[in-house]
Amino acid sequence: MKGKQEAIDIVERYGHGGDPWTAGELFQREARDFIDFSANINPLGPPTEVLRVLQEAVTEVGVPGLARYPDPANRALKKALAESVNVSESFLLIGNGAAELIDGVTRYVQPRKVGVTAPAFLEYERCACKEKAEVIYLPAGEKEGFLPEEAALIEWIHAVDLAWLGHPNNPTGLLMPLSFLEIAAKEAAKSGTILVVDEAFLDFIPDGERRSLLPRIKEFPTTILLRSMTKFYALPGLRLGFGVAEPGLVEGISAMQVPWSVNGLAQRAGEAALVTSDFANATWKWLQEERSFLLEGLKGLLLIEWVIGAVNYLLIKLKDSPGIQSPPSRWLQQRLGERGILIRDASGYPGLDGSYIRIAVRSREENAYLLTQLQAIEEELQKGLEGVDRCKEGGGT
Ligand SMILES: Cc1ncc(COP(=O)(O)O)c(C=O)c1O
């Protein structure tokens, strides 16, 4: 009973960040009043070209974008994507967010054993559990330098039917060396394991395409690459993602999707997003500046042991300082939530505990606000400790 109570008292009640509605119930605030560092969405978006296309689609006279079914085969979007990522259309799978494809891949493979790194994005194991598969964890935590050991990786690939690698991984924000992915994809092909490399955040890296197996996907017939268009283009409410894989796999997984799973507005938004000219450069510039700003500010805080992350979110290890209730991740999430700031308590990720939180990189104003609120929390903590010490001294004399 206690476990159940705890399970509903947390901000991540539905398993993810980006849920100001649940936070609103817990912290007695309107959902719109939170600054959300718990979901990793580009604050520069959505791009103006995308917004224009969406406005046109809902106001069109004659054939309104809303009053007809979307193209069930995503034809125009597939064509645009094929040009953009330079693969033929038969290699493309379009989904209602990468999340739909994570579910679709798992249902298609019908695995008995699913390989998940610890830590990793929670949907991989959630989908495995829905299929009643056994989850086999590959350690990739602090002890391993957040990268699995090569021998362990190979053994793990051969031991499962479906394996997931995050590139960059969520919540660490770290990429895997390309040589490492290549080994994984080759071993997967040898053993017939379906390997999914989740590249949902790879577009935040300026030379991301050079760090992907995508240009060589034909060499790896059991590997699927997943991309999301909801993070970089800031369209999580619209939902859009895609996969790249050998056409047989694409057909099999597509057959598992519900009809029209990608709505008409998302199809048009996706097409428009692919031809935005300055948006990517502006995003990369913002990210470089703001990540450095946040890293600098965070390093100066007593609460924080270390910070890592190469993309638009940072994994933070908190110190177990006096005055902080355990687990520190929950304590800090609570203190910031009361101040209208949402962060991700990362203790729910396999392989992590209550020392870890994850925050997104946001605008300068929001990042600066987060830092001042963290400083204020530290100051309150210091004052509280001074009080405790004085009382002790007073009691002794
Ligand atoms: C690593 C990773 N993959 C996939 C997804 C799902 O993304 P989408 O919004 O495209 O469904 C997320 C969402 O947070 C994620 O973190």
Largest sheet: 7 strands, mixed
**Gap from first CA to last CA:** 46 Å
How much β-strand is present in the residues?
5-15%
Class computed from helices, strands and strand pairing: alpha/beta
Bound molecules: pyridoxal-5'-phosphate
The residue-averaged pLDDT reads: 93
Give the CATH topology of the largest domain. Answer: Aspartate Aminotransferase, domain 2
Whole-number total of structural domains: 2
Overall geometry comes to: globular
N-to-C order of helices and strands: HHEHHEHEHEHEHEEEHHHEEHEEEH
What is the CA-atom radius of gyration, in angstroms? 22 Å
- Determine the CATH superfamily of the largest domain: Type I PLP-dependent aspartate aminotransferase-like (Major domain)
Fraction of residues in helices? 40-55%
By CATH reckoning, the class of the largest domain would read Alpha Beta
- As laid out across the biggest beta sheet, the strand order is 2-8-7-6-5-3-4
